[in-house]
Write a structure and sequence with these properties.
Blueprint lengths: L1 E5 L4 H12 L3 E6 L2 H11 L2 E4 L14 E4 L13 H8 L3 E4 L4 H6 L4 H7 L2 E4 L3 H14 L6 E7 L8 H10 L3 E5 L4 E5 L2 E8 L3 E7 L3 H10 L3 E6 L4 H16 L6 H13 L8 E8 L3 E9 L7 H10 L7 E4 L6 H6 L6 E9 L3 H6 L8 H6 L5 E12 L3 H9 L6 E12 L4 E7 L2 E10 L2 E6 L2 E5 L2 E3 L2 E3 L2 E6 L2 E2 L7 E9 L2 E9 L6 E11 L12
Parallel strand pairs: 1-2, 1-4, 2-3, 4-5, 5-6, 6-15, 7-12
Antiparallel strand pairs: 7-13, 8-9, 10-11, 11-12, 13-14, 14-16, 17-18, 17-29, 18-19, 19-20, 20-21, 21-22, 22-25, 23-24, 24-27, 25-26, 27-28, 28-29
Helix pairs in contact: 1-11, 6-8, 6-11, 7-10
């Protein structure tokens, strides 16, 4: 094919050009600076022309495909799809390597025009969403994934383009929406770090940023939760960016090119450190297991990965007609074949998931009614809402403890919302009683279930009796210090089903006096899911 590549001198564009030439395509680099374009073309072994995306686009004629590998796509101005429209008008296939959610989603507006012209118009033909969606489909098979968790984790010695740096810096500290537990949650760019394991046991840390996956995968795959993180190998760079994000949360100043260049200078000073090893991880959690696909690129071949999806697609004899995001336009097998001549190792793994409550209760868990079991089978994040009534103890000791632990005031009827989130150690439960919140962490330990809040950890002797789940406190500690029995609160707590609905009745008796501290009882139902189509604004 005759392929015109914009941004062919850039970090990812030059590698795409190299791969396409290896595959026998006739490639031409287009750039605003003809001298620079010719220099790159000479080194890579192809032609070069002068063309500005904002200027005359007549040079498109004579090519079969145009690929925009330039960016930053979020900064394309008032007419961001000018190149795509010109390609459609000229009867030329249009592809881009955008990782910007708005840009990638917006390309769908040209579907009718692309079909009329018989051309392929795809945005996001890169690591996300093209490669990530191919991995999700391969891992999911016919199952609907509950959780999709993706991370891109480059090595520090990988070259850094200004466009990619500007894209990440612009997101740092700014609001973003994440589909979490069938609801759109508000969070911030470069936040909530997590660790990922790549082939060979290499562990890297990633931080949340926005890519097309969070916008498009909830509807396309039907997932309850869609997460994406990106990482930097060196801790000073990761935490330095976190500090920058924190400042922008308070003072939302714009990220201009001079700001990006300052960060580029700082990053280049650290370039000799770290390694050229980078990778990608895609994990899918189904009802019973967690399935993972990961890759590790050695010796600096990581920057080739964003070009792999385009290479795989352009190996086909025919391209799909129409316009849209590049979701499932290639298969994982095609992608892996397009990496075969790179120094890349891929790996798949499957591990059963074992929620904390079934693990502690064993076979007894299956004797519980379905309405109770469902509340304890969270695979990512689950949300429950209902109403309950509160009775408070009347003594001074009880009132003091209720104030310290922020138990809700006595009331005949309060709305309650419980959010359960799976963590690496178990589950975090966030309870909202009206305006009050109470957070605790539950995990399975050698002695059974443990619940922690603040400095306190209590062992709970979970047991099933006559279809009800009971929560007696058996021991406790404050930090590492065991609490004597007389200092333990007593818990008379049970979960049961009435009228087909999950109910709870919890009475907590104060340490020492064993007088009533608080009693709350009521019901919970699964929260109604949000519309997975992302809201228009933050």
């Amino acid at each position: 094919m005759k392929i015109l590549v914009l941004g062919g001198c850039g970090v990812f564009g030059a590698r795409l050009v190299k791969l396409l030439i290896v595959d026998g395509h006739e490639v031409c680099i287009a750039g605003r600076n003809l001298e620079e374009a010719r220099s790159c073309a000479k080194e890579l072994g192809c032609r070069a022309i002068r063309m500005d995306r904002a200027g005359n686009l007549d040079a498109l004629v004579g090519h079969e495909v145009v690929v925009d590998a330039a960016g930053p796509f979020h900064a394309y101005g008032d007419d961001p799809y000018r190149l795509a429209r010109a390609a459609i008008a000229a009867g030329i296939h249009y592809l881009d390597l955008s990782d910007n959610a708005d840009f990638c989603e917006g390309i769908s507006a040209f579907d009718a025009e692309a079909r009329d012209a018989g051309v392929c118009v795809l945005s996001g033909l890169s690591s996300v969403p093209a490669l990530s969606s191919a991995a999700v489909r391969a891992l999911s098979g016919e199952d609907v994934p509950a959780v999709i968790d993706t991370a891109i984790l480059p090595g520090n010695r990988a070259p850094r383009g200004l466009s990619v740096m500007q894209s990440i810096l612009c997101q740092a500290g700014r609001p973003m929406l994440v589909w979490n537990g069938n609801r759109w949650d508000r969070t911030f760019g470069w936040s909530k770090p997590a660790r990922y394991t790549l082939p060979g046991g290499l562990v890297r840390q990633g931080w949340q940023i926005e890519v097309p996956d969070q916008r498009l995968f909830p509807t396309h795959f039907g997932a309850e939760t869609v997460l994406f993180r990106a990482g930097l190998e060196l801790a000073p760079m990761r935490y330095g960016l976190a500090l920058f994000a924190g400042v922008r949360r308070v003072v939302p100043f714009p990220v201009t090119r001079p700001v990006v260049r300052v960060f580029k200078v700082l990053a280049d000073l650290l370039a000799p450190f770290g390694s050229g090893r980078g990778g990608m991880s895609v994990a899918v959690t189904t009802r019973h297991e967690r399935r993972n696909w990961s890759l590790l690129a050695e010796d600096g071949d990581g920057p080739f990965i964003p070009a792999v999806a385009a290479r795989a697609l352009l190996r086909r004899a025919n391209l799909p007609v129409g316009a849209g995001p590049a979701i499932e336009v290639i298969t994982l097998e095609e992608a892996e074949a397009a990496m075969a001549d790179l120094r890349v190792v891929t790996e798949r793994s499957v591990a059963p998931i074992s929620p904390a409550f079934p693990r502690v209760l064993g076979e007894a868990f299956h004797a519980l009614p379905d309405a109770i079991k469902e509340t304890h089978l969270t695979r990512g994040t689950s949300r429950w809402v209902g109403r309950f009534e509160v009775e408070r103890g009347i003594g001074a000791w009880s009132r003091l403890l209720c104030a310290i632990f922020r138990f809700p005031p006595g009331s005949p009827g309060i709305e309650v919302a419980v959010t359960k989130a799976v963590t690496s150690r178990g589950e975090t439960w966030l309870r909202r009683f009206g305006r009050n919140t109470f957070r605790s962490n539950l995990s399975a330990g050698p002695e059974g279930m443990r619940e922690s809040f603040g400095p306190f950890t209590f062992a709970i002797g979970l047991k099933v009796q006559e279809g009800e789940l009971h929560y007696p406190v058996t021991s406790g500690r404050m930090g590492p210090i065991p609490l004597p029995h007389w200092m333990l609160p007593a818990s008379v707590a049970r979960e049961f089903v009435a009228d087909g609905r999950f109910h709870f009745d919890v009475a907590i008796l104060a340490p020492m006096t064993k007088g009533l501290l608080v009693r709350y009882r009521g019901f919970l139902s699964a929260e109604r899911p949000d519309d997975p189509k992302r809201p228009e604004s933050h």
